[in-house]
Every structure is written in C-alpha cells, then in structure tokens.
Amino acid sequence: MTEDRILSWHSNPSKPRYTPPPGAVDAHCHVFGPMAQFPFSAKAKYLPQDAGPDKLFALRDLLGFERNVIVQASCHGTDNAATLHAIKASDGKARGVAVVDPAISEEELHAMHEGGMRGIRFNFLKRLVDDAPKDKFIEVAKRLPAGWHVVIYFEADILEELRPFMDAIPVPIVVDHMGRPDVRQGPDSPDMRAFRKLLDSRPDIWFKATCPDRLEEPNGPPWDDFARAVAPLVADYSDKVIWGTDWPHPNMQDAIPDDGAIVDMIPRIAPTPELQQRMLVTNPKLLYWPEEI
Ligand SMILES: O=C(O)/C=C(\CC(=O)C(=O)O)C(=O)O
C-alpha cells in the first residue's frame, strides 16, 4: 500500500540554470528500497515510497552531475543492502556511507569496502533513531578500513555536548548539513561561531553545505537566509566543504523542494568557478575516490 507511505520528492524537478563542472559529485543523497526487495527497518521512524537507483541516476543526469555518494537512510536501519545495491547499479559512479551495528566484524567492514562504502554515519537526531551509543561509536570508529571516515548528523543545540566525543574520533569527520545551524540568524550567529570553532579544532573535519530547504523549512526558494549564512563559511573553509542534493529529501513531504532550485543555490554559496570545483569535484574525490587524485 503506497498510500500510507510518504512521498517527499518532486515528481517533475526543473532543469537547473547552473551547470556543474565535469566530474561533479552529489555527495549527499539516499535511496529508499524498493521495499519489495529491500524492506524497511522495523525501527524506521518514517515509511517512504520507493526511491530506488533508477530514479536517483535519472535525477543525477538531469541535474548535470556525474557521481553520487549514497548515504544509508535511517529507515533502512543497519541493513545496508539497498544502498549497496544502488552503488553496484551505478557502474562505478557511486560510493556510499553505511550505518552499522557497532559490533560489526572486520570481515563485514571489508565486504562493505569492496561494495563501495567509504564511511559510516552516526545519527544523533532523536526523531530518527532510538539511541546513539557514543562509547560504542568510538570503538567501531577505531576499527574502520583504511581511508574511511565518520559522518555525523546532529543539530546545533548539542554541538557543545558532542565536542569530547568528536575529539575522540580517530578518523576524519564529515558533518551533515553543517550541524543544522539556525541560518536565519545570519553568518555570525552563535551557531555559526560554534561550528567554525569545531572546524578550527582539527584539520580533518569536513562539512556538507547542504539543505537550504531543511534549514529554512517551510520556505521555498530563494532561500536568501541560507545563502547569506553559508557563503562565508564556504569561502573560509573551501578545502573542507562538499555538497549534495539530499534527494529524496526524507521527511520533507510538507515542503518538497524542487531539485533544480536546490542546484541553483550552488553559485550563491560558492560564487567562483574555483570554489565550485573544490566543493563539487576536488573535495568529494579526496574523501570518496582518493585513488583518482
Ligand atoms: O537525509 C537527511 O540528511 C536528513 C534526514 C533524514 C536522515 O538523515 C535519515 O533518515 O537518515 C532528516 O533530517 O530527516
């Protein structure tokens, strides 16, 4: 019954005016199912309609991207089969970030590396996961395959509380959606200052300059607050920023964004070709296709 399942993506996204550079990577997107093949987790907090690799790759081509980084969504729990399936179907054009049971074996991690995973995600949003055991997360972060990193998703109000945990992570960190600052407060807000302090605390913290739709929800474009708050961060930390569409926009069913409009935010947060090259090509390659550098 698809009627009870959430539809959170645009059925007819526009072609963006902005053209990404060759090799551009959409470094934050997800797949949902298809459910008949890859059932959702019993602990899933939302039940979406199918958004499989065929839809994702059609969108990639429409938007002018060449590659995807597919992040395991919470609705699939720690069963990464749907994400691994999508990576395989991409013909080398996708890599991924897994969500794992911290007790995962070295053999299973190695198999995930073979399947294209290059990191694991720790999700601290209470509305998405039941628990986030920091001690176990640190333990598994110490056992990751060489070259992997940790992706962390949290909201700005717990950044300070998470600092000792992040300090203890022995591999590079990528922060989802800049730790969800209140972009309405501008580029020099307490949230943004705290996030800059985090980035300054070690040289291997990356961030995704993503989700104008989420951070200004329920506003649609032009997302001026997002552009004003985020552009200075991209300029000042241009060697640490990556970007993604966030398709199929989990939980955004009440303010579904047009993916073309999302892509058209790129020149507003990264106005020069040099910044765009770093954010869309060089930086994501360093994290996900380092063998090509
Ligand atoms: O897609 C995102 O990055 C954000 C999400 C969903 C999510 O992270 C997940 O389901 O794992 C959100 O804020 O609901």
UniProtKB/TrEMBL annotation:
Residues 25-288 form the Amidohydrolase-related domain. Gene3D superfamilies: Metal-dependent hydrolases (3.20.20.140). It comes from Sphingobium nicotianae. GO terms for biological process: 3,4-dihydroxybenzoate catabolic process. SUPFAM superfamilies: Metallo-dependent hydrolases. It is an enzyme of class 3 (hydrolase). It catalyses: 2-oxo-2H-pyran-4,6-dicarboxylate + H2O = (1E)-4-oxobut-1-ene-1,2,4-tricarboxylate + H(+). This is 2-pyrone-4,6-dicarboxylate lactonase. The lineage of its organism: Bacteria, Pseudomonadati, Pseudomonadota, Alphaproteobacteria, Sphingomonadales.
